[in-house]
Amino acid sequence: MKPLSHGTRRAFTLVELLVVIAIIGTLVGLLLPAVQSARQAARRSSSINQLKQIGLGMHNLSDANKGFLPPAYIEHWLNPADPGHMYKGPYAPRMTGTGLYFLLPFIEQIGVYNKGKVNYDGNGESALNHSYDVYGGDGKARNWNNSPFQQKVTAYVNPLDATSSQTTWGWGSTGYAMNYQVFGYPKHPWGYWWPLMGYNQLSLMPDGTTKTIMMAEARAGCQGGNDSANGKLWGHGQWNPDWMPLIGASGQNFTNYGPYGPTSNAFLPPQVNPTDANCVPYRASAFGTTCQVAMSDASARSIDAGVDQLVWMYLLQKDDGQNPNIEW
Asked: What is the mean pLDDT of residues 96-125?
């Protein structure tokens, strides 16, 4: 009697193996764009949520300061009692920093904010604590190693912009920028620091909070400006204005990117996927086909990169009297 036959297992031929590999490769090729698209969508969603939190934080900050938004930038030497200084808001006297510095306690970054407290007692000034100043009243440098402006603030890192997690010459970067037309004083008759010291109240915004951009995405690495500008640095001041975290910076005496009007480079629509070399300071950035913004009512929106230039300019200006026609 013959033993039972146990069938032999046939191996793949080389041709069959190549076919299987080709099929797997095709499937990976089909799935990879979908995976990349899903990741980009997740980054975009994270960014717009951060913009919304920044917008809400600005509202809470203004509520704590008599309804005033912070200035784009202010310095400790300002004396509001001097009528010539023309600053009427509550972020003085003896305070120094950008609007993003003053926002820190309202986005759960009180530890970074408190690093900015220094004491000017040794300069013969008040013993009060003040916001951090790179140079004190005596002209001597402060303790830069303990500066808050070296910090990478998670809320200011845009997941769509890899350069926003970097530091530049020791300064922390940001992938979001304040709208100078809202936080500054574009029509101030003086130059230098003064046009940065806006004192605007949300409740009195002429065009309304729903029609005015407060913050926008902007590429952090940005060498296309004056003085070899190298980015949006969230705590940087006026001495290298192209390094400040601003968009729309144009006015009578803030003219690096054109006069106050529709011809200014600062009012051009968002720059699409800018590189480190061609990025233009004071312009927002579109990562992909849209630029995400926080409106002044703290809502977060996506604006098509192909938005009409005049519409974009109207969205930046808080007092142009226009009702921009845009579909969200």
From this structure: 77
Q: Which of 74, 298, 281, 79 is nearest to 195 (CA)?
A: 74
pLDDT at 216: 98
Neighbours of 314 (CB within 10 A): 23
The pair of structure tokens assigned to 176 is 């979001």
Residue 43, domain member (yes or no): yes
Measured between alpha carbons, how far is 35 from 51 in angstroms, rounded to an integer?
A: 24
Return the H-helix or E-strand segment holding 180. Answer: helix 180-183
**Are 32 and 140 spatial neighbours (Cβ–Cβ below 8 Å)?**
no
For the entire predicted model, the pTM comes to 0.83
What are the structure tokens assigned to 317, written together? 């200006």
Alpha-carbon distance of 200 to 11, in angstroms, equals 77
Residue 78 has pLDDT above 50, yes or no: yes
CB-based contacts of 36, cutoff 8 Å, min separation 6: none
For residue 5, being part of any structural domain is answered with: no
Structure token digits, residue 295? 């409106």
Give 22-66 as a DSSP string.
HHHHHHHHHHHHHHHHHHHHHHHHHHHHHHHHHHHHHHHHHHTTT
Q: How far apart are the C-alpha atoms of 241 and 33, rounded to whole Å?
A: 40
- Is residue 10 assigned to a domain? no
Cβ neighbours around 25 below 10 Å, total = 10
Residue-level pLDDT at 121:
47
Residue type, 213: I
**Does residue 323 fall inside a structural domain?**
no
- Please state, in angstroms and as integers, the Cα–Cα distance from residue 133 to each residue in 96, 99, 130, 170, 268, following that order: 6, 14, 8, 15, 33
Mean pLDDT confidence for 107-122? 73
Q: Per the structure, how many domains does the chain have?
A: 1
Domain that residue 224 falls in: 20-316
* Beta-bridge partner residues of 215: 178, 294
